[in-house]
Amino acid sequence: MSTTTPIEPHLTHRERVRAAGLSGDYWYPAMWSGDLKKGEVKEVVFWKESIAVYRGDDGVVRAIEDRCAHRHVKMSLGVVQGCDLACGYHGWQFDGGGECTKIPHEVRTKNRPDIRVGSFPVTEKYGIVWVFPGDPEKAQLSALPHMEPVEKNWATIPVDYVVKCHHSMIVENVCDFYHEFLHRDYRPFASARFTGIDTTDDSVEVRYETKIGGGPFVKYFADSGSVNLNTIKLWYEYPFQRSDIDGKYLHWLFLRPIDEQTTHIFYVFTFKSFKLPFVKATLPRWLQQPVMALANKLYVQPVLGQDNWIMEAEQVAHNRHGGRPSFEFNPFVPKAQQLTMKKWDEYEASLKKRVSTTKKAGRATESPSAASLQVAE
User: Fold this and answer.
1) Cβ(175)–Cβ(241) under 8 Å?
2) How far apart are CA 130 and CA 156, in angstroms?
3) 283 close to 275: Cβ distance less than 8 angstroms
4) Considering only Cβ atoms within 10 Å of each terminal Cβ, which end of the chain, N or C, has fewer?
5) What is the CATH code for 28-131?
6) If we measure between CA atoms, which residue out of 80, 47, 36 comes closest to residue 239?
7) In Å, how far from its chain's centre is CA 373?
8) Do 129 and 36 touch, CB atoms closer than 8 A?
9) pLDDT band at residue 377, thresholds of 50, 70 and 90?
């Protein structure tokens, strides 16, 4: 259960948005599955709370609070022992449910107290390790995003990196097609015109008419003969983001907020088809993935690098000028901010309720540490 800090009531709307976290009651990407080998443990941070994610000798991934119950040293500094995780200091072992299963130096063998740390639901799908940092009882009610193109083995480009800015800035950037000037050398989109927006309790959909893929490299491979590259739909499906170009070029963006000014993001770009340059033939399936790797290096990474640079610059600007008026003309931005604040307020209320229930029961929580239940009374 992630730590929350009350947002000061005197802050401006924009400052309040930039201080909000994401609700822990959803699944979040920890890492790519291939980045966690058997016998490995890694630290994963969700909104200032550290989680030790490890893969046991049986190949199953588990996640526990990154804190030994003994001296509170990070468990991610420890060693995987079979299907348990041993603290690197005294070797205390904990299983995937957070229960202490072994104390190598133990002298007291009778009437030992029940020693445990918090644990987290964890699963693997689409080549991603997912963790559920919120109320474990809600994990079964929260569905993972459905990425049908990945299931159908479309060509993909997976990308992840840490950007030093608030998560809301990233959603606003990706769904804002008015910043084409930033990408003037690569031209991933051009001449965007807003055509509509729809909202639900959990999402914001925005639509544009625009010219997609007119820049170097992409224009030679984009299958304009069978794909309509003049329109795009984008969604902020809390807490994720995605887009759709004619049902054939789709992407998903998953965000894991580390703190107010740091976010780990995971992109999955999917493509149904590409054409061979200068001819009408479609790029054969066996050649698509190597082309995707080249496109990632020559096009995707440079474009995302520009976004990364400007979003970090926006964070610096916000730190200096967050209290000043900001003039926003893209209708998506206020809708996305309203959704972020609504979900965050709901999550804070649910945390307060859990703390109250725990105190009334007169027991320490077995969810990630009691110290993490720092919400305003």
Assistant:
1) yes
2) 19
3) yes
4) C
5) 2.102.10.10
6) 47
7) 22
8) yes
9) very low
Give strand pairing partners of 252: 242, 268
Q: What are phi and psi of 71, to 5 degrees?
A: -110, 5
Task: Give phi and psi for 194, each to the nearest 5.
Answer: -65, 130
**Cα–Cα nearest to 84, from 58, 120, 50, 110:** 58
Buried-state track 171-196, b at ≥16 Cβ within 10 A, e below 16: bbbbbbbeebeebeebbbbeebebee
- Residue for token digits 């790519």? 32
User: Could you give the CA distance from residue 131 to residue 123 in angstroms, rounded to a whole number?
Assistant: 7
Q: Which CATH number does 148-333 carry? A: 3.90.380.10
- pLDDT above 70: residue 354: yes
Q: Is the peptide bond before 239 cis (omega within 30 degrees of 0)?
A: yes
Q: How far is CA 225 from CA 112, 122, 282, in A?
A: 71, 42, 10
Q: What is the pLDDT of residues 225-273, one digit of tens each?
A: 778 999 999 999 999 999 999 999 999 999 999 999 999 999 999 998 7
DSSP 105: T
CB 52 within 8 A of CB 45: no
Residue type, 175: C
111-166 tens-digit pLDDT: 778 999 999 999 999 999 999 999 999 999 999 999 999 999 999 999 999 999 99
> Nearest 5 degrees, angle CA 31-CA 256-CA 236?
120
Measured distance CA(2)–CA(46) in Å, rounded: 7
Q: Quick check: 48 and 3 in contact, CB under 8 A?
A: yes
Going from N- to C-terminal start, the domains of the chain cover 28-131, 148-333
